[in-house]
Every structure is written in C-alpha cells, then in structure tokens.
C-alpha cells in the first residue's frame, strides 16, 4: 500500500452530509445525507478512517453533541462541525457564495451582486473553517476542500503553518478571464485557489479558463501544461491543476432501476400518461438550469409540430432550493405562470401538455421517472457537470431513452457524441431536437444509449475519487 493510501482523508465542505431537524413529536433527529458527494466520498472516508468537516445546517439550539454520538461507529468516519450564525449564513452562503460567485462562475453577470459586507463575512467564515480544520488535522492527513464556498481556506491553513497536502475541487464551472475580471475580489480568490497543492475542475474548458486567468493576472507564473494535469510555478511554489469530471455510482443506479419497485412505478407512470412519449426535466430550482427556456422550447414544439399534440408530455420536476433568495422566488413564480399559460393554450380533455411538480421525489420515484422517460431534456444555461444527465443514462436500463443535453453542461464533454446536443438559448433548435428525438428509430436510440451507458459506467464516481487522490 502506498503512503498516500495510508493517509487519513479530511473532507471539508460547506454543509456536512447530515440533516438535523425535529421529527413529528418535536424530538431532534439526525439523518445521514444521500447526495452525490456523500456517495462518492463516504466509501473513501470509511476506508481511510477519515473525517468530514462542515456546517451542520442547523441553529445552535440543536443538541448536536448528543446527536452525533455514535455517528463514527455507524458510518465509519467522524464529523467535526463549524457552527454559523444566521447572519453569517445570510452573508457568506446566501450572499457572497450564491449571489456573487455562483452567478459569476456560471457566466450570468446580470444576476451578480457585489456587496463588500458579504465579502468580509465570506473571508471570516473561510478563516473559521480553516481554524477548525487546523485544530483537528494530524501530521499525515490529506485535506480535501470542496467547492466555491471555501476558496480561501487554503490561505489561512498556510498562515497557520499547516504542512499537509491541500487539495481543492470546484464543482461549478470556472469562467473565462473576461468574466472573472469583473469580480472586485478577483486577486484574493485567485491567491486563495493558488494556495492549494492541487486544484481540480470538472472539465478541460474550466481548467483552461483558470490557467488563462493565472497567465493574465500573474505573468511571472510559469505553466507546464500536460495532458492530465498542468503545473503552475512561481518563486519556488507550485500548484497542480487538473480536470476530473465528477460522476455517479453507476452500478447502484443500474441495480436500483432494475428493481421490481422501480419497474412497477415506471410502468404505472406510463399508464397514467396514456402511453404518450414522456419528456423529462429534473432540476433544482435555479436560474442556471434553463428551465423557463426549456418550457418555451416545448411550447415552440407544440406550435411547430401540431401532429405531436396528445402524443407527447413534458414532465418537469423542480426541487425547491435556496428559497430564501428573492431571485429564486421570482423564478418559481415565472415557472408557475409559464406552465399554466401553455397548458391553458394547448391542453385538451385527457391531455395536459406539461406536468410540473415542485417538490423533491423519493429516490425510487426519481428512478422510475428516469426509467419511464423516452426523452430526457437537460438544458442548463451553464452547469459544472450535471449529474442528472448521468443518472438518466444509468437508469435507462431498457436502453431506449434519448438524452438531449445542453452544450454548456460539463457533462457534454464526455457524453456529447451520443447525446443530442443543443444550445439552450436556441428555442427553435431545442424544439427541433425534441422533434428529432420523438421520431428517432429504435436502433439509433439503442445505439446511442449503449454508448452513453458505457461511458458513465467506465467513468464512474469511484474512478473520479481515485484519479483525484492519485494526482495529489
Ligand atoms: C452541483 C453543480 C455538479 C434532483 N431531483 C431530485 C433529486 N435530485 C438529485 C439528483 C442529482 C442532484 O440532485 C442534482 O445534481 P446536479 O449535478 O444535477 O446539480 P447541482 O445540485 O447543481 O450540483 C453540478 C454537481 O454539483 C456535482 O459536482 O454536477 O454541475 O451545479 O444527484 O439525483 N433527488 C431526489 N429527488 C428529486 O426529486 N431524491
């Protein structure tokens, strides 16, 4: 076993992989999270007797110490918490992270707010995360920081003379220099990222954008560009930069999608929709996901191709997210209004063109939706990766689904050849892609889906973790 494999892994992310809330009787309860990152990191943390550090997502009134008792014995890794006040959550998380970095890094400058108070709190909270981490880290540990909320942690860890290997992974896109330059705190964020030993991006494009920003902002820094990773050098310090497309646990999705429960639920879903072709959209409520543009493309399809009336249905699942932020409340209203307008115009007795669900589906239902849908319509305006696209392929066990994918999703770099790629701003082009998918013959569908599934199976999440850690 190599030295790296023996190191303990410390994962740091804004949120811990747990939910703390009260049950029906008002008793506090803790449930383990089940998101993509947990699936990816939990086995590695277990294997390395690791630790996960983050904000528990609850107020200080929750009896965290007692709730966390026994967590390590059950899950195989331990947790350390970084408490945050409500004001810190508002300014660091909802403010600077979600109203500044999130839209800027997704190329949506019009959504950005540049608020110095939010910035100051972001700096402070990043320091706090670093202080907690420095207090728990052992000599031989490897520290892996996740995502845009924590870009600055590395600087503070270096100040505290933490000598451990420091790695960072960005789950969202990295913008081109012209966009990054708009950020009033671009130098600090850049220095933050350069304080890590390894910085990982989702795609080659993101990695190139980052290297270009470095070249423009720090001309003295030399870049040694290689296929898998590049190395940046200046004054004796060096930083590795690579792209590591995140993925899913293919085998798990594939297995669950074949279960009797999911098969029955998928069959039932189709029966209820009178065996029409089902077009599926699944997204968190977010303006980056291109949901209004997608609904407009579906409207255009109905306008352009009347023969599809009664024969096709869009099922759009929107999972509530960041509902404290006014932008997200506005988007929700826009979606309600759009779906209502189109259904009123085109609906007929026995056919509702758009089924729009605003809640999270239980996992079995989600898989049944993936399995039942003949077409997945995944059209973000910009997306780091988009795991829904990969999950759809893994759950399409009947092999006849068509993936329509935005060229601006990170997933397009790997899946672009077998999916139908669209520009989500091109309403007509997207409508035509749905039309093409609707009429696609069985053989072409099967061939494309076979290639998609093979790609996701090979490039699965376990490989993602391995590649990343091996690059350090
Ligand atoms: C960020 C980046 C990057 C969705 N609806 C339901 C449900 N989901 C789950 C999906 C999927 C996850 O949520 C969404 O993941 P995405 O990757 O699509 O998007 P973000 O949340 O924006 O994630 C993104 C990702 O980080 C990882 O690096 O790919 O680009 O923005 O796993 O399954 N789960 C359940 N019910 C639902 O209704 N149970």
Secondary-structure blueprint:
Elements: H1 3-6, E1 9-15, E2 18-22, E3 28-32, H2 36-47, E4 51-55, H3 64-68, H4 71-75, E5 78-81, H5 86-105, H6 116-136, E6 142-146, H7 153-159, E7 166-169, H8 177-180, H9 186-194, E8 198-201, H10 204-217, E9 222-224, E10 229-234, E11 237-243, H11 250-257, H12 260-272, E12 277-284, H13 291-304, E13 312-319, H14 326-346, E14 354-358, H15 363-372, E15 375-378, H16 387-395, E16 402-406, H17 412-415, E17 420-422, H18 427-439, H19 442-458, H20 461-471
Parallel strand pairs: 1-4, 1-6, 4-5, 6-7, 7-8, 8-11, 12-13, 12-15, 13-14, 15-16, 16-17
Antiparallel strand pairs: 2-3, 9-10, 10-11
Helix pairs in contact: 2-20, 5-6, 6-7, 11-16, 12-15, 13-14, 13-18, 15-16
Enzyme class: transferase
GO molecular function: alpha,alpha-trehalose-phosphate synthase (UDP-forming) activity; glucosylglycerol-phosphate synthase activity; trehalose-phosphatase activity
InterPro entries: Glyco_trans_20
């Amino acid at each position: 076993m190599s030295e790296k494999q023996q190191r303990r892994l410390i994962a740091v992310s804004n949120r811990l992989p747990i939910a703390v809330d009260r049950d029906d009787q008002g008793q506090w309860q803790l449930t383990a999270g089940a998101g993509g990152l947990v699936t990816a990191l939990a086995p590695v943390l277990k294997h390395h007797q690791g630790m996960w550090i983050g904000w528990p997502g609850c107020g200080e009134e929750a009896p965290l110490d007692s709730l966390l008792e026994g967590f390590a014995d059950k899950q195989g890794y331990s947790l350390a918490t970084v408490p945050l006040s409500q004001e810190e959550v508002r300014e660091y998380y909802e403010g600077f992270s979600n109203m500044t970095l999130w839209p800027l890094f997704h190329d949506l400058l019009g959504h950005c707010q540049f608020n110095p108070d939010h910035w100051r709190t972001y700096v402070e909270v990043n320091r706090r995360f670093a202080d907690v981490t420095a207090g728990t880290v052992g000599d031989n540990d490897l520290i892996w920081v996740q995502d845009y909320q924590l870009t600055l942690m590395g600087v503070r860890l270096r100040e505290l003379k933490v000598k451990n290997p420091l790695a960072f992974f960005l789950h969202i896109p990295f913008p081109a220099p012209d966009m990054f330059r708009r950020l009033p705190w671009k130098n600090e964020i850049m220095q933050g990222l350069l304080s890590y030993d390894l910085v990982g991006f989702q795609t080659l494009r993101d990695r190139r954008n980052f290297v270009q920003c470095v070249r423009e902002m720090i001309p003295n820094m030399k870049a040694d560009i290689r296929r898998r990773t590049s190395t940046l050098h200046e004054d004796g310090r060096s930083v590795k930069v690579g792209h590591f497309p995140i993925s899913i646990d293919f085998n798990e999705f594939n297995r669950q999608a074949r279960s009797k429960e999911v098969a029955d639920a998928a069959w039932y879903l189709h029966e209820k929709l009178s065996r029409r072709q089902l077009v599926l959209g699944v997204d968190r409520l977010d303006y980056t996901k291109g949901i209004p543009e997608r609904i407009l493309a579906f409207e255009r399809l109905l306008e352009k191709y009347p023969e599809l009336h009664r024969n096709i249905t869009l099922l759009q699942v929107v999972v509530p997210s960041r509902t404290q932020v006014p932008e997200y409340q506005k988007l929700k209203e826009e979606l309600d209004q759009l779906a209502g307008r189109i259904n009123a115009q085109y609906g007929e007795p026995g056919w509702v063109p758009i089924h729009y669900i605003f809640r999270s589906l239980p996992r079995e239902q989600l898989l049944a939706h993936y399995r039942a849908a003949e077409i997945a319509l995944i059209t973000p305006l910009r997306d780091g990766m988009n795991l829904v696209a990969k999950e759809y392929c893994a759950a399409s066990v009947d092999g006849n689904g068509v993936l329509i994918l935005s060229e601006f999703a990170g997933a397009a770099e790997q899946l672009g050849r077998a999916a139908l790629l669209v520009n989500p701003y091109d309403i007509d082009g997207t409508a035509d892609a749905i039309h093409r998918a609707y009429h696609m013959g069985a053989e072409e569908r099967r061939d494309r889906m076979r290639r998609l599934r093979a790609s996701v199976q090979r490039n699965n999440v376990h490989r993602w973790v391995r590649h990343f850690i091996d690059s350090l």
